[in-house]
Amino acid sequence: MSGLWRFVRGGGRARTLGSVLLGAGTVLASVGLLSVSGALISGAALKPESLLVLLPLITSVRLFGISRAALRYGERLVSHDLTFRLLGRVRGEAVAHLARVAPAALVGARGGDLLARVRSDVDELQGVYLRLFAPTLVAALVALVTVALVGFVDPRLAPVTLGLLGLAGVALPALAVRAAAAAGRAQNAARAELGAATLEALHGLPDLVTGGGRPAAEGHFARLLATLEAAETRRARVTGAANAARDALGGCGLIAALLLVGQGVAQGETSGPLLAASALGLLASFEAVGNLGSAWATYGSLRAAAARVDGLRALRPAVEDPERPVNLPADPTLRFEAVRFRYPGVETDVLRDVNLTVRPGERVALVGPSGAGKSTLLGLALRFWDPGAGRVTLGGVDLRDLILADARSRFAWAPQQAEVFGGTLRENLCLAADATDDDLLALLGDLGLDGLLARLPGGLSGWVGEYGAQLSAGERARLSVACALLRPAPVLLLDEPTAHLDPANARRLLRAVEERARDRATLLVTHQPELLGPAWRVVGLG
Ligand SMILES: Nc1ncnc2c1ncn2[C@@H]1O[C@H](COP(=O)(O)OP(=O)(O)OP(=O)(O)O)[C@@H](O)[C@H]1O
Questions:
Q1: Contact at 8 Å (CB) between 428 and 398?
Q2: What tens digit of pLDDT does each residue of 285-329 get?
Q3: The domain containing residue 339 runs over which residues?
Q4: What is the ipTM of this complex?
């Protein structure tokens, strides 16, 4: 349980105690209902004329019947509220950690795998509290009460009951954990891989369909499904065997009660209704204890899910906030001073002794061959990585001395791969900053997106498709530039915004940038310096 403990703590003591007590109350109400019903039926059969004596039993049946439903409702409410709080915290921590380590630590990660960890693995972890922790405590409480009650009826029945409940509540779960561990791990791994592969296949569906990769993809899915099915079958077998053993042990308890208490009845020391009550009550107590076997069969897959969620913590950020941060300077001059950089695990430098200054109101175009390190340089300004030698400064202050979020708040960036989210045009734009519809329409018009506005049903309220699938590459790039222009940041970083545009539209975009970012420090990466007007200073890299 040690690796799972973290997914149980923090739900609040009162809630945890409340859910366990309500759970135990529910099972004890079942025990009471069956016991009292047994006593009532046998009492009525033995002395049908004494209705008055039976009245308390009749009332108790009603009381236990109603309270069982009410207690179950309360228990579900409290335990699920607690579980969702726990899961919300775990998921929030996981997402916050991913945001902290992005993008550097995520370069080698699979998006689908990360999604599976944050979503299905965290969902799976609800079983830690609901299936393992709370039911085990409930079973322990119910077992104690049951042993005490049957001991009260017949002291010889107490050790027998304790033994049978011990077998059902301790030995059976221990066996189930061992028997289902490998299947649980395999099930979790196959489910995660299936989720990741599905996402990747959906993303690359057009390529798979047209590029002949479909048979290989289908084969991969078939193998994954077979692995998942085999693991689920193995686990279901363990669960079935545990349930059968639970029923057999419950039956043994019933027989033991009939034999031992029955002797008392034969000798006139115990009444018949008490025999019925103890035998049926004992059987009912197995509802709580006996289910632990099948519940603990999920332990392996819960451990695997917990390990995968915890594994996210192994992703370390490439940059950290300084211990003693410096105040953000008002001057947004961006300067690269003798910057040298190589990617982790790579043997050669991408950037060597790069010196460059971009002042407010200046427009600098960075040109150079593919792979020269132009995007990398923008990444250093955004502090996705830190330089190996030299420094990048903002207003004369080393970026490493500024709080990361503060430093990044000074930049507006349109990346080379324009990120467009599944939403409306307006939603995508307003991620950058709030603006009126008139301002948005004017901006899109300046960037040559008036045609898109006219074509897209709903205009600004038009749905752009998943990842902007309803937009052309050039439209996506211009939408990304629009977001950067909307963002009120004094340094503008544009990574090949004209790559997908015809010369006329490219010039129109550059003019809009000149107009709208007149006072900002602008650094633009391009392979088309011939499109630039006199306002631009061209700097070569590589
Ligand atoms: N995360 C990474 N890990 C390792 N190497 C990387 C990484 N990102 C980029 N590179 C390598 O660094 C070099 C510079 O890449 P970068 O994207 O900065 O070039 P670029 O000048 O912008 O190229 P292009 O004009 O084609 O966009 C390339 O050789 C690339 O393969």
A1: no
A2: 887 787 888 889 899 889 999 999 999 999 999 999 999 999 999
A3: 334-540
A4: 0.98
